[in-house]
């Protein structure tokens, strides 16, 4: 596929690949959506296309990582519960004060709910989230000796913890493979026609079957990062997408390269990312830390 942005070009001094700035006007093989049924794709062809998309995204986002700030499994599970119905950025701006005051499950389990509510107010739904994180902390203390369990079957029994949260914790705190099916992941895998399922558990199973288990955690990061930065819900930046030649939904968004470039988010568009303390690899690639809560 010579000449398309999906080719892996050399990286610039800033650590970015040419794929991050290349903007296809109308890549070969990528057709505008017309409403006609797509041509049938064999199972083998689907697996090959899906794995190639993941490889290409790994080139574009070599520094992909969980975008919640955390230093241990307890901080990660609490932050993930708090991320419901809000952004990771807002959670990252809120949790420093929470963990400074309540650093352990024992501390948070014994906390005054009104004081926790005041800290969590910027996250939205702060009363419900206060009940969740205090209940979660009590369960960790009473049932797991104050430690976050490393098994899926134990995690999903904790208050406020579903499969998505459990896989975030397993993959990023314990190094155990899992697929995180958030709203970005659901949107993109359906656009790419990896699956037609709408139920998160069925999406997880369908997509998991396309990849080796060892790929699952980083696959989740690649897809979610692409959804946040380029393949947006309302107006995807199709003209700036490095995997456009592999995407059957090319044309749903802005295809003009210059206009599409202006739609890019986070470090790809020169804006701060989600984390206040991102990994060094992200900073080396030109990423910018998020501002703390209340900063201009």
TrEMBL record:
Keyword list, A-Z: 4Fe-4S, DNA damage, DNA repair, DNA-binding, Endonuclease, Glycosidase, Hydrolase, Iron, Iron-sulfur, Lyase, Metal-binding, Nuclease
GO biological process: base-excision repair, AP site formation
MF GO annotations: 4 iron, 4 sulfur cluster binding; class I DNA-(apurinic or apyrimidinic site) endonuclease activity; DNA binding; DNA N-glycosylase activity; metal ion binding
Keyword Nucleus: no
EC assignment: 4.2.99.18
Segments of skewed composition (Low complexity): 18-30
SUPFAM superfamilies reported in the protein's UniProt record: DNA-glycosylase
Catalytic activity: 2'-deoxyribonucleotide-(2'-deoxyribose 5'-phosphate)-2'-deoxyribonucleotide-DNA = a 3'-end 2'-deoxyribonucleotide-(2,3-dehydro-2,3-deoxyribose 5'-phosphate)-DNA + a 5'-end 5'-phospho-2'-deoxyribonucleoside-DNA + H(+)
Cofactor(s) listed in the protein's UniProt record: [4Fe-4S] cluster
Top-level taxon in the UniProt lineage: Bacteria
Function: DNA repair enzyme that has both DNA N-glycosylase activity and AP-lyase activity. The DNA N-glycosylase activity releases various damaged pyrimidines from DNA by cleaving the N-glycosidic bond, leaving an AP (apurinic/apyrimidinic) site. The AP-lyase activity cleaves the phosphodiester bond 3' to the AP site by a beta-elimination, leaving a 3'-terminal unsaturated sugar and a product with a terminal 5'-phosphate.
Family designation: Belongs to the Nth/MutY family.
Record-given protein name: Endonuclease III
Species this protein is from: Streptomyces poonensis
């Amino acid at each position: 596929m010579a000449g398309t942005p999906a080719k892996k070009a050399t990286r610039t001094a800033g650590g970015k690949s040419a794929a991050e700035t290349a903007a296809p006007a109308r890549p070969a093989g990528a057709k505008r959506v017309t409403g006609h049924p797509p041509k049938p794709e064999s199972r083998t062809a689907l697996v090959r296309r899906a794995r190639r998309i993941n490889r290409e995204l790994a080139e574009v986002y070599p520094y992909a990582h969980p975008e919640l700030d955390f230093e241990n499994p307890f901080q990660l599970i609490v932050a993930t519960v708090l991320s419901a119905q809000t952004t990771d950025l807002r959670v990252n701006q809120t949790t420093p004060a929470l963990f400074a005051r309540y650093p352990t499950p024992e501390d948070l389990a014994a906390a005054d709910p009104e004081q926790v509510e005041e800290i969590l107010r910027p996250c939205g739904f702060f009363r419900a989230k206060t009940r969740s994180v205090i209940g979660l902390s009590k369960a960790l203390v009473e049932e797991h000796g104050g430690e976050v369990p490393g098994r899926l079957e134990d995690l999903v029994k904790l208050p406020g913890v579903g499969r998505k949260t459990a896989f975030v914790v397993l993959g990023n705190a314990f190094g155990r493979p899992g697929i995180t099916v958030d709203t970005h992941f659901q949107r993109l895998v359906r656009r790419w026609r990896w699956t037609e399922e709408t139920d998160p558990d069925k999406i997880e199973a369908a997509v998991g079957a396309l990849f080796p288990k060892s790929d699952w955690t980083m696959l989740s990061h690649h897809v979610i990062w692409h959804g946040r930065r380029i393949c947006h819900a309302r107006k995807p930046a199709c003209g700036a997408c490095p995997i456009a030649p592999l995407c059957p939904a090319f044309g749903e968004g802005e295809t003009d390269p210059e206009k599409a470039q202006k739609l890019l988010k986070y470090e790809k568009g020169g804006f701060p990312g989600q984390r206040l303390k991102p990994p060094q690899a992200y900073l080396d690639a030109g990423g910018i830390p998020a501002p703390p809560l209340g900063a201009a």
